[in-house]
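[Automated response] Your request has been received and processed.

Submitted sequence:
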Amino acid sequence: MSEEQTVSLVDVLKEDEELEEEASAVLAGSDSDHCSYPQGYVKRQALYACNSCRPKGGEAAGVCLACSYKCHEGHDLFELYTKRNFRCDCGNRKFTELQCKLHPEKEEVNRLNKYSHNFFGVYCTCSRPYPDPEDQVEDEMIQCVVCEDWLHGRHLGRVVPDCVELQEMICELCMNKNPFLWTYAAHLSVPGAAVQVKEERDADQSNTNLPVKEEKGDEVIEPSCKRSREEVEPSCRLMELQTIGQKRVQSGAVFWPSGWRSKLCSCTTCKECLSEAGLSFLLDESDTVLAYENKGKTNEQRQQSHDPLMSVLDNLNHVQQLEIIHGYNDMKTELKDFLQRFAEEGKVVTPDDIRQFFEQQSRKRRRDDAGCFYPT
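Generated structure:
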């Protein structure tokens, strides 16, 4: 008989703290009270797709964080994490029976928004929901920098490297749509082994829209990014890398280390090339999800620094401030020790236990107050 897996209260508290920190990183970078529509196509924001409001067979649509709270409370929402350059659709033509409560006056459609199958609740090349009730395999989902789709680690066509949370990933499909990226990959990407057999990928999906590579023996014809070498500026970093001729296997997703964007060529010709491909954001370090999350954490810390309790403390004298702070810290320490005992003994904390704890705190405070001598 196998032993039943147990989780201590300390583990639960630690996991809750990690989830709260992760949520703060994503949500604190977006406004939870005001619709983002007036800001236009926001550089990056948390987005949701409402399955309850979208008519059957209707168009893809996305709503901002505030609208997900105020206009779609209790609805069936697909969490899209973050997307770049998106304008809130809430209440526009795509929502036939819904008017936005926060910003009712909107254009019929946001023509510059980009949509994917994520807005219909499916992800990856396998087009499955997340979480997937039929998938028994434990696997992480990783977002592609370019298409912003989420892919299972086992469907990337390569081994997922360590410290993946500090790296950016471009999926194989996006690499092949922009072949000049393979030149950069040969010099800048995180080393790793490609997976020989790609699991669970339908044949009609694995080769869709992939350009054919022309090969002569071992020689791969490098993409010129729609220009001849004569047209390239003398200081072009991409041309220098092409001249070196270093090669790598052009298959599978590519992982990039921190700071790799700063090493891309920013000459006039390369900028035009990136603009034509819709990839100008690759030259922007602040476009990264990590930069957005750090901004969210900073905003959260700034909000916490304006806590109402701190405003009250500002109106007290120094002695009163110290008494309140010491009292708060003592209670927090005692509560942690109190819960720790339950965790170590494997006991369940009941409402009566919590009530008893605060009654003890109240009695202790009365004893302390009775023993104090206040000079007149």
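Summary generated for your ticket: The mean pLDDT is 81. The beta strands are 42-50, 63-64, 77-86, 141-143, 150-152, 168-170, 215-216, 219-220, 254-256.
If you did not submit this request, please reply to this message.
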